Amino acid sequence: MTSVMETIDQPIIPGLPDDLALRCLAMISHGYHGILETVCRRWRKLFHSAEYSNYKAREEWSENWLFVLTEGSENQWTAYDPEADRWHPLPRIPTHHPDQEHLGFSCACVLNKFLLIGGTYGARDPVFPHQRALATNEVFQFDPFRKEWRKVASMRTPRSHFACSVVSGKVYVAGGRNTSSGGGLALAEVYNPLIDKYVFRNLWYICLTSASTFDELV
Question: Which SMART domains match (predicted)?
Answer without folding.
Answer: Kelch (SM00612)
